[in-house]
Amino acid sequence: MFKAIALSIFGGNNGRGPFVKTITMARSQLTAAMKSLYFTELAEKNRLPRDFANKYGNRPEQFFIAGEELRTKYGDKVGDEIPWSAVGVYTYLKERPGLGLKQMLAGTRKFKLNLIDRSDIAALTKLASEVTGIPMLHELEADLFEEILTS
User: Fold this and answer.
1) Which CA distances in Å does 94 have to 26, 44, 47, 49, 91?
2) What gap in Å lies between CA 123 and CA 103, rounded to an integer?
3) Distance CA 44, CA 60 (A)
4) In this predicted structure, what is the pLDDT of residue 25?
5) So where are the chain's domains?
6) What is the rounded distance in angstroms from the CA atom of residue 113 to the CA atom of residue 132?
7) What sign for the dihedral angle of Cα 45, 46, 52, 55?
8) How confident is the model at residue 135, as a pLDDT?
9) What angle do CA 3, 28, 47 make, to 5 degrees?
């Protein structure tokens, strides 16, 4: 998934794409939704594992990382119109790919999305390189490496 995000966000295509036609995601988000629903049901029945409740709290507002943030933004809709399983998926997507994106930005020493361009990313497979025109890792600095080796 991160590779697909990198190609579409950092592609700088500004509507000249698409460079990514599909993003296939399922297992981790489904797991987040199912586990969120499971722990919410356990909380409603006061059957949360003791260690879990002691560490994270015994109400969904407490044990979802983004629970308080979403409650502040959407009020009482959270937990009713916005089910806790959706909060779990939101939390997963915010924490996992969001953190990876921040780390990639830090690695390129460019701390805002508008500073990134296609030269900051590399394709991981030959097919991705062919489809997007983004060079593979070993092709990025090929000219520089050749100059170093021949001088």
Assistant:
1) 16, 25, 28, 26, 5
2) 18
3) 9
4) 58
5) 2-120
6) 19
7) positive
8) 87
9) 155
What is the length of the chain? 151
pLDDT digit string, tens, across residues 78-100: 988 999 999 999 988 888 777 77
State residue 105's pLDDT score: 80
CA 14/CA 131 separation, integer angstroms: 17
pLDDT at residue 141, rounded to an integer = 79
Q: String of b and e for 96-117 (b: at least 16 CB within 10 Å)?
A: ebeeebeebbeeeeeeeeeebe
Q: Is the pLDDT of residue 24 over 60?
A: no
131, containing H or E segment: helix 126-132
Q: CB 127: neighbour CB atoms within 10 A?
A: 9
